Structure formats: C-alpha cells, structure tokens
UniProtKB/TrEMBL annotation:
It catalyses: uridine + ATP = UMP + ADP + H(+); cytidine + ATP = CMP + ADP + H(+). Residues 69-264 form the Phosphoribulokinase/uridine kinase domain. Residues 282-297 have a biased composition (Polar residues). Belongs to the uridine kinase family. Its EC number is 2.7.1.48. Residues 282-317 are annotated as: Disordered. GO terms for molecular function: ATP binding; uridine kinase activity. NCBIfam families: PRK05480.1. Keywords: ATP-binding, Kinase, Nucleotide-binding, Transferase. The keyword Membrane does not apply. It holds the Pfam family PRK. This is uridine/cytidine kinase.
C-alpha cells in the first residue's frame, strides 16, 4: 500500500485543532475559474492529442494511472469552487495550458439534466427545484468519473444558469490529470458517486454568509432578480440543503469551516497533493507507479472508509 496515501499519515499530521483567529479575518472575493478548457464540439474533438503528438501532453504509460479523485461538497455559495480555485492556484495550475495540468477541477453543475418544456417554464419562474438530487444526471456523472479514473480524456457539458440548460454545441475537455477535484452541493449524496472518491472534503460555511453571497452572485452572474433568488432560496434551496446536502457532511474526511478563508486547511490539503505529485513523479522516473491510490483508500477497488470525519480544522472555543 502506498505510504503516501495512507490516510492515517495525512490525518495524523492534521489532527491538531488549528487556531485560526489571526489567519481567517480577511474576507476576499474570488472569481470562479474553470479548470478545464471550454471548447466547441469540433474544437474538443481536435484536441484529442496534446502538444508534440504526446497523448494529452503525457508520456507513454502514464495516462493509464488512476488519478487521485477528491470530492468537494458543501451548501450553495459555501465557497466550494473558490476552495478548488485556491488549491489550483497554490499548486501553480491556473496559468498553464489545460492539457498540461496535473490538477483539474470539475463542477457538478455541469451535470444538471436537461429539463422538459414544462419544467423549463417552472425554472424561469424560480419554481424548479435545482437542489433536489433528481435535478442531476447522476448516471452521466458516474460514467464521467469512471472514465476519468480510467485515465481517459472526456468532454463534459457547459451549463448556463441564465437559460437553465446546457450550452448547445459546447463542451469542456477534461484531460487526464494526476489529481481531479469534483465539487458540488450533492457530490456525496449518490452512493455510487460518493464511493468513487479517494478523499472527501466538506466546505462548511455559515448559512447566513452563504445566503449573503448567493444573492449578489445570482443577481450579477446568473441573471436573477432579488425576489426570485429569495423565493427560490426559501422554497427549495434551504429545505433541500437540510434534507440532502447537510446529512452528507458525515461522509467527509476533512471539514473546512469558512471555506477559502481557512488558509490553514487549504495549505494542509495542498501539501498533501504536493507530496502525492512529487511521489508519483519520482516513481514514474523509476519506471514504476506506487502512487496509484491503494485499495485501502481507494473505493474504486471496493474498500470503504468509516463514515465519520477524521479531521476537523477547528477554531478553539
Ligand atoms: N472567502 C470568501 N470571502 C468572500 N467571498 C467569497 C469567499 N468565498 C467565496 N466567495 C464568493 O461567494 C460566492 C460563492 O462562492 P463559490 O466559491 O462560487 O461557492 P460555491 O462553489 O460553493 O457555490 C462567489 O461570488 C465568491 O466570489
Ligand atoms: N439553473 C440553475 C441551476 C442551479 N441553480 C442553483 O445553483 C446551486 C448550485 O450551485 P453552487 O455553485 O451554488 O453550488 C443550487 O443551489 C441551485 O439552486 C440555479 O439556481 N439555477
């Protein structure tokens, strides 16, 4: 079993309760960032090989290795995508060619299912429940994540919140990577999806803060008006969070209070990923791969971890 991916090692190093009072005072606004390239369908097809004819920029034998798959759950506007973006930034993965990235981030929102005409009318009135598990195409999520774990390049839909539907003729190309972050409100809800993750993070941000962030975001970025945002929140978002999202917190390995403000938690996760990447590189240079997530920590191989969080990054009381 890979020593690096023994969860015990990571958890032992992070088990201490972390004092955060001086570190978490700053409130910063971050912009969403796609960690994969967005292309039209034709563009996506022409990208099947990476630069210099190497498959996705990687050398023979490497593309088949299982990426380390990290699930990132949490309520709406808790900071899931911002946490993922922070991780990517700290690993120097943002300003680089998508095909060359070692770490990529994917949103569950790309997998909202297509609505029927009647549902579309409801959605336009803010009367469709986008926070219910039925709103997602979970089969497509499972298939995509399995393809990713098999080291395959895949194209995923681009979602438009303004039209409540997929953008026609557009896809996001996800190139094989060493680490894949998959974030969304219900990524731990479906057992078949949940069991694919090697590590599960839950971004735990206060509900008032989340609502205060969601209102301007939905108005400015998702084409909604105030009344619609508040009605949707009270009728669907909040009840569904309590029924479907919050109960999945128990599946998390790491709970990140305050999201992207929690730099200590993010740094620990980044450090863990750095060690994984360095170890994988070293083993590849030796011509072997001992860093494929091991059966003990890899649900892909059927082993399960206990459903209790191992680590809390917690402010002392
Ligand atoms: N730590 C933070 N401080 C201030 N604003 C934040 C912070 N984290 C996220 N935001 C803002 O809150 C909104 C929701 O954040 P986002 O990361 O998209 O959440 P999620 O992916 O969980 O929906 C965005 O407008 C983002 O810029
Ligand atoms: N057409 C849609 C699709 C989704 N939503 C809301 O988005 C939220 C999930 O995205 P986060 O970035 O906030 O995690 C979810 O709460 C849905 O209500 C929407 O409003 N319209």
């Amino acid at each position: 079993m890979s020593a690096l991916f023994s969860s015990r090692r990571f958890h032992a190093s992070a088990r201490a309760f972390v004092s955060s009072s001086t570190l978490f005072g700053t409130s910063r606004r971050f912009r969403h960032g796609m960690a994969a390239s967005v292309a039209s369908s034709s563009e996506a097809k022409s990208n099947s090989n990476g630069p210099n004819g190497r498959y996705n920029g990687r050398i023979n034998g490497v593309e088949g290795k299982t990426p380390f798959l990290i699930g990132v759950a949490g309520g709406t506007a808790s900071g899931k995508s911002t946490v993922c973006k922070r991780i990517m930034e700290k690993l120097g993965q943002v300003d680089m060619d998508h095909a060359q990235r070692q770490v990529v981030s994917i949103s569950q929102d790309s997998f909202y299912r297509e609505l029927s005409p009647a549902e579309k009318v409801k959605a336009e009135r803010g009367q469709f429940n986008f926070d219910h598990p039925d709103a997602f195409n979970d089969e497509l999520i499972v298939q995509t994540l399995k393809d990713i774990l098999a080291g395959k390049k895949c194209d995923i839909p681009v979602y438009d919140y303004r039209t409540n539907s997929r953008c026609e003729n557009q896809s996001i190309t996800i190139y094989p990577a060493d680490v894949v972050l998959f974030e969304g409100i219900l990524v731990f809800y479906f057992p078949e999806i949940r069991d694919l993750f090697h590590m599960k993070l839950f971004v735990d941000t206060d509900s008032d803060t989340r609502l205060a962030r969601r209102v301007p975001r939905d108005i400015n970025e998702r084409g909604r008006d105030l009344e619609q945002v508040l009605n949707q929140y009270m009728n669907y978002v909040k009840p569904a969070f309590e029924e479907f999202c919050l109960p999945t917190k128990k599946f998390a390995d790491v709970i990140i209070p305050r999201g992207a403000d929690n730099t200590v938690a993010i740094d620990l996760i980044v450090q863990h990923i750095r060690e994984f990447l360095a170890n994988r590189k070293q083993n590849q240079m030796k011509g072997e791969d001992q860093t494929t997530p091991s059966p003990a920590t890899s649900p892909v191989h059927g082993a399960r971890r206990p459903n209790t969080p191992d680590v809390y990054f917690k402010r002392p009381h």
